[in-house]
Amino acid sequence: MEIDFGEYRLSSELRGHEDDVRGICVCGDTGIATSSRDRTVRFWSLDPAQKNKCTSSKIMLGHTSFVGPLAWISPDESFPEGQIVSGGMDTLVLLWDLKKGESVQTMKGHQLQVTGLAIDDNADIISASVDCTLRRWRNGQPIESWEAHKAAIQAVIKLPSGELITGAISNIMMCSQSHVNILIANLFTISLWMIPIYVLLSFAYFLFGIFIRNLFPIWKKNTYLIKNKEILLVLQIQLLFLIKQAAQTTMHYLFYNIVCLFLIKQAAQTTKHCLFYNIVCFLFYFNNRNYFFNYRKSYDCVLKPCTTFFKTLKRVGGLKLEELPGVEALHIPGTADGQTKVVREGDNGVAYSWNSRDQKWDKIGEVVDGPEDSMKRPVLDGVQYDYVFDVDIGDGEPIRKLPYNRSDNPYDAADKWLLKENLPLSYRQQIVEFILQNSGQKEFAFDTSFRDPYTGGVTFELTFFFSTYISRISGVPTKPVFMHIPKKGMLFFDVAQFDGILKKIAEFNNALLLDPVQKDLSLTEIEMSRIAAVLKILRDTSHYHSSTFADVDIALMLKLLKSWPDAMVFPVIDVLRMIILHPDGARLLLQHVKEGNDMLMETIKKVTTAPALAANLLTSTRAVTNLFKHLSFHPWLQGHRSEILDVFSSCCSSSNKNVQLSYSTLVLNYAVLLIEKKDQEGQSQVLSAALEIAEEGNVDVDSKFRALVAVGSLMLEGLVKGIAMDFDVQSIAKVAKASKEVKIAEVGADIELVTKQT
Fold first, then answer.
1. Whether this model's pTM surpasses 0.70
2. Contact 115/154 with Cβ under 8 angstroms?
3. HSE-up of 690 (CA within 13 Å, CB side)?
4. Which of the listed residues 348, 443, 497, 626 has the most CB atoms within 10 Å of its CB?
């Protein structure tokens, strides 16, 4: 079959999301909906005048973490334009009125991230989650729940027949009533055969055990220890049972295997434990033979007491199972967010974490013990791992804990961790390399069956090989595959030490109060309380979609920027940096800028005048970088591009690595913006700034990497490839490609590949 590679062509690009897109949903013939890590759902209306053209018409805010799956409910009388259902990392399922762009229902019930959505024939909402459950919702209320998988459910779809198919990490399961009935019937058959066969085998095992122990007695601390010869004979006995299985039915065969595995496990226990178990079974067989006709009584009289005994020996998390508190301990509220507690649930110990926001204990998972040296293994959230790494991703982010077992697929572990930490998937390769290097698995063989859960792709090398192969068999040339370019989306600085900022402002304010000359510049008690209130709003990122500022708050910040001495202004700029990230804060700030009082540009010029303080350069470059988050500020950024890049150019030679990184991030954001705007003059200036950073010998690795990404992106998708070639960018790419830093070498190879394109 010949493939028509020209059948599908790119017709338009929809730009608006501020982070990677996680879900897409077709909404009839009216448009499409998209979801993103930026916590928004956007609806794009089809342009009736231009086929295949869409425009952003609604932005729906309500999720407190990134949004994933989407589903569309067709219009009815109540909702003439239909509804959209969204699920997010915040465990919520939200129902939106497409006409108003507002949330009309919030469905709570899942314990972990919502990963899939489907709509059944009754317009009920079916949601799947990482917590291994499916839930059915009607009119915003849960009416049904299933725990169909033992692993995180990744997707759910409804078949035309009405059945649901769910996909998990380990398998796929079709849910229907008939399957449930068959499962129950099979369990009943297995339990019916269990007791009589097991007791007979235990009796035989007991007799052979006496014979073996008489031949090989070893006394140590009043306990018989099983030695290798005993285990060998026991295994020979098991072999006799296995031979006998050949004449049994499939059901018997299955059960004999289970019994023999259990007996082999017993052989590794102390003789005291084996004797106890078998003597009980033997005596019961002779004294209560009539009970074998009632397998329920057999369970109550034989297995239940023995099982209870062995429960007293089980340990979880280094503690005896019997010493753990029961589930009633979860009725006692926790004392701090993230506090962990391990409780006994049946035969297992289960770890829970206290959720201060919802005032409840969230289930983490089952706690298991490893080998005898398990107490030496690191523990995270009540679970033991082979490794628990400290990960510093830079950019002022806090240190994070990365758990890993050597049996895990490092790519799978990296993906799960990035999702849990709400970090961009662009960190994936770096995390994998970090895991392999620190776990000693440098020779890890990549599993070619692995597929990225979001792109469906494998590693770069395999993807490149496959595309090249398709090119050869089809005769159609394929585009080169780049690892780091072109850059899509902007980077921001969204972490702040709010307590430190408030403390520093209070310290400077006290200094002004004590200075007779500058006393009039100090803040009143009411103004200090206003700043504390502003920081409280900024600290609560989960309510950015609903919290607001007063105009006097922004006016107060601008007043301080204008009046306070240069040496004291940097904590105020840091507050402004975070206000910019807040939707309402950015809106109010833009109003002040549009009114002709452009305090932003005045402040930038003020704090960059030589000799500029490193703290002022750092906070101001980060503040300007954060302006790229909002489309409404893009015209201002484009209009002041030349001034901004000129006044911050000294950051390139700064000895402060954080200042270097902030400046290179600013340059990279400008590259992305000006490529989109097709501004050749602006691209030329940004290219010059990026090349200056790339050629600087004393620049931090991360700063150089971002500058090289800017260069490669401008050459690949911008209008300045010829200018870059005139600047001898080939030499810069060659030097970068030879770097010992992996990501520098990779982006150097990307740029070299661009230079070879015609």
1. no
2. yes
3. 32
4. 626
